[in-house]
Amino acid sequence: MTELLKADRLTKHFKIGSTLSRHILHAVDEVTFTVGEREIVALAGESGSGKSTIARLLARIYPPTSGSVTFDGHNIRGMRSRRAQLRYAAEVPMVFQDPFASINPVFRVSHAVLRSLKLHRPSLSAAERRAEAERVFDVVGLTADMLERFPHELSGGQRQRVGFAQALAMKPRLIIADEPVSMLDVSIRIGLLNMMASLRDEQGVSILYITHDIASARYVADRLIVMYAGQIAESGPIEEVLTAPRHPYTQLLLSAVPDPKAPLAQVTDRGEPPKVIDPSPGCRFRWRCPLAIDTCSAVTPPLTELPVNLRGSAANRESEHEVACHVAQSGAEVKAFV
Amino acid sequence: MPEILAVTDLSVDYVLERGDVRAVDDVSFTLDRGEFLGIVGESGCGKSTLLFAVAQLLTPPAQITTGRVTFQGANLVGLTDKQLAAIRWKDMSVVMQSAMNALNPVKSIGAQFKDVLEAHGKPSKQEVRERSAQVLRMVGIDPVHLKSYPHQLSGGMRQRSMIAMAMLFTPDLIIMDEPTSALDVVAQRALMLQIKELQREYGFAVIFVTHDMSLVSHFSDRMMVMYAGQIDELGSTKAIFAHPRHPYTKGLFEAFPSIRGPKTQLRGIPGNPPDLNSPPHGCRFNPRCPHAVDLCFETVPDLYQLNGTLVRCLRVADGSIDQ
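Output (structure tokens, whole complex):
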């Protein structure tokens, strides 16, 4: 698979407290991952795990503290000219969580789409812009007459489709979708997930799908990245990670997903992800982990590829399965929350 | 099991200038002592309005137009706030969706517990301290947090302390409005297991409102599916999960991807819930229903009894679908 975007040791720290009691919040720490062409990558984790901070780093809303993001071979920090920045914004647009807050309520929804066309594709004439707006509305499953509606006249699902249409109008290559379906009703969600899959399959767009809902991630995504406390705990082909999770946290997360078809796992974990303020070395999950050994409190486990003999039987050898866990990497069987 | 709550023909209207909107339409159900009833539905289906109507917490423009809410033998509809105060917290308590908004941000948890305890009787300082510490321990929070303010607690702890507060008088009924919706799955499961454990120990009944079907599957004895202000299906949770009958319930089941088993293409339910200003003629689900026939557009369906489950569908009732 051709690599489209690469985050390399991406780090974002926030200063908190007053000048006298200065602390550093490690929102994202040394995160490395890639997104390929025509690929949906799910970035999953609990609230506070740093997944939205990653979205904002990729969208250049914040500058990183250290580390880099490379898109199509170019470091995005090197984009100094307005033209390069505009181009990146068009190729990597973002779709937000709340479709009620992300569209300007005083304009018709055509305004949102036509305006980004005017900004990002100035060569188009007014008639071409109009035709293009109708085309992208069609792609996301809206009818052309909906262009003239106001946001309040559309349902939540339709509004979120407008968000995707706006992104599509810019001819994107990677859409960063931050919890795009979590505010929608369950009967509407699947329609939107199906649309995301068709954007990948028919338009060739990659999507970084940020979510806390593992089941919806499995439904559309090709690969899964599990975040815990600002770091990647585990990543790999989604079916492999779900059937053979090797990080204790992934196992905890999967055991907690309610599933009418499976009996309820009686796990009594009451822990919560830590706020990572001025951390010392060591695994950040060790306080909740039943398998923690001495090394876990001394050395931060690096995210490394799992040796082939330790991978699940469903392993797709073309794609790496990476785990940041000393116990899993030692070859011992990890059965923490199963 | 003796019946603790009976809701009979309950309707709630929002009285607006452009006309009344019926948010809850002719809902009847009963609840036994110690029973766990899950109410599921999409936003706007009337589930929260129903819950507020049961707890007598509706504020204008919403008002109960018909029906009775019989709790422990007495009709609550029409009671004054003073009369209701006698049962609130003591016999019936409510846990709201967002603990962050339901707790007072400028008062410590302990001070808020004290307010509740002083609403019924005049406990001594020591009694307040002991009971408050006891309920916090019941939900697995260290009593040192009685001195904490809401913002110092995590989301899960806030939600658990709300439940502790609801337990202060060990009421017979606790009404919960999506108490886990702000929590992560891991915290959600911990909270649900906690509620079940407390329920087993103290025997209170629970009405639990949620939009998450799979959440009720493990925890509720009976479940109610609401659509456009009405009950679509009501019966034992096991029976409905084993054999959903109403096309809407079926549609909801098929709208949930699973993390286990074979991966299948899902369709969800086409269309959107109806505008309650002008609900569709006949069955309210007919614009979205794959099984709708002429009859469904002409006749308003009743709730039909089928093997102990109530279903609002003409075609299920006459046996033409769902054999």
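The interface with chain B takes residues 46-47, 155, 157, 185-191, 193-194, 212, 214-216, 218-219, 239, 242, 252-254, 256-262, 264-270, 272 of chain A (CB under 8 Å).
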